Amino acid sequence: GPVAKCLLLLAFALCSCDALHRVQLKKFPRPELKKFSQHITDFRRTKPQALSTGAIHLSNYQNAQYYGSISLGTPPQEFKVLFDTGSSNLWVPSKKCSILNLACWTHHTYNSKKSSTYVRNDTKMSVQYGSGSFEGFLSTDTLEVGDLRVEHQTFAEAVQEPGVSFAFGKFDGIFGLGYSSIAVLGVATPVKNMAEQNLAQPIFSFHLSRDETNESEGGELIFGGTDPELYDESTLHYVPVSKKGYWQFNMGGISLGGQSVACKGGCQAIADTGTSLLVGPQDQVQAIVDSVDAIYSVSGITMIDCAKVDSLPPLTFNINGRDYTLEGKDYVLKFSSFLSTSCALGIQAMELPHIQWILGDVFLGKYYTIFDGVNDQVGFAELK
Question: Does the active-site annotation cover 84?
Answer without folding.
Answer: yes
